[in-house]
Amino acid sequence: MKNIFQNGDLMTSTTKISKGFQTVVPSEIRKKFDVGPGDVLEWKSTKNGAKIRFRKKVTIDDIFGMVDGPETDAVELKRKAQRGEKI
Predict the structure, then answer these.
(1) Crossing angle for the helix pair 74-82 and 60-67, nearest 10 degrees?
(2) Which of the four, 4, 41, 47, 80, has the lowest number of CB atoms within 10 Å?
(3) Is residue 62 left, alpha or beta, with left meaning phi > 0 and alpha meaning psi from -120 to 50?
């Protein structure tokens, strides 16, 4: 794996794809975005390649936190949770 740091915060990391089409998320990226087992990678095709976004696994505490508070739209809350947005 090769890491190149530019402009202090920007980072480029290179990994290989295995025979089984698997790859590793570099530790610097995992730490920076607090990514771990059970989290999801969303891959989006773009004109210039692919865009990757992390989506956190939703815990029972996250779900309990959704129902506390003022009246809300349950469908919209579910969509936000599925997109990994903080509610």
Answers:
(1) 150
(2) 47
(3) alpha
Q: Which residue has the tokens 């989506």?
A: 55
pTM score: 0.53
Alpha carbon separation from 83 to 40, 53, 67 (Å, rounded): 10, 10, 18
Residue-wise burial string across 10-35, b where 16 or more C-beta atoms lie within 10 A, e elsewhere: eeeeeeeeeeeeeeebbeebeeeeeb
For 13, the 3-state DSSP assignment is strand
The C-alpha atoms of residue 52 and residue 42 are separated, in whole angstroms, by: 6
Can you read off the two tokens belonging to residue 20?
A: 């089984």
Rg (C-alpha) for the chain, rounded Å, is 17
